[in-house]
Amino acid sequence: MLNLVLSTDKLQLITSAAKTIDVHASGVDDLSDVFTPWKQNTAISTNTTTDIVAAPAGGAIRNVKFISIRNKDAASCDVTVQYYVSGPTLYELFKCTLATMEELVCREGVWFHFDQYGGVYSTQLPVGSDSVVGGVQLASTGDLTTGTDVTKVVVPGRLKYFPGFPKCWFSCGVAADIQQSYGLSSLTDTGTGEVTATFTTAFAAATYSAQVTVEMTASTYAVANARTAAIYTSGRATGTVHLLCIDHTATTHLVKDPLTWHAVAYGGW
Q1: What is the pLDDT of residues 61-92, one digit of tens each?
Q2: What is the pTM of this model?
Q3: CA dist 148 → 138, 140, 142, 162 (Å)
Q4: Which end of the chain is more exposed for a tag (fewer CB within 10 A), N or C?
């Protein structure tokens, strides 16, 4: 608890700006074991130093049991509570920034900072890392795109923005029937040995990287079963990619369907 013992002891509040601040203080005076309750209300509207608890009468001990400092203004204000002793000697007790409708309370010597909804601000955690237990911040879309931050946490919904994460992948049959996929809007069976993929989100430029492979038509590695996949000439557009599959005919490679298509694309949005 806070006790004012000398007849010059008092509590003051420093306000950093001309804001509307209401202060209430109350407690009990002890004069030779005679206890007298007291209260003091102060309305502040300037950036100044204001006495919020007056000094006790000579010989009395003023016990400050409760202080409420509420910011009623539409803008924030820095407040500093200090103990004034004759001299003057000043001791800073508590300092914080009160946003609009926030309140600083001292109850039985313990300070609480309330937000506008009546919740108490907790102790701030240190910044967490791979070697320090503490608070963390979520990585933004920009953090993922840059890919250099090592202090923020990545959530699943933003992982796709990381440059090293595939923006689209899929497997499909020869009729462009999608088996599994991610980031794929649709597939079109362009013709024998050809398929066109349409991305859910278009790339920023048609210079992204696309890899494609296909499944052989049989387990025996023979000319009739082998297939080679490629990207069609000028087949990369920002929103689509055109894929091609050929066989291993000895004289002239022919466009042929594979058993299944497999493709993945990397790049920036």
Answers
A1: 999 999 999 999 999 999 999 999 987 889 99
A2: 0.56
A3: 14, 12, 10, 10
A4: N
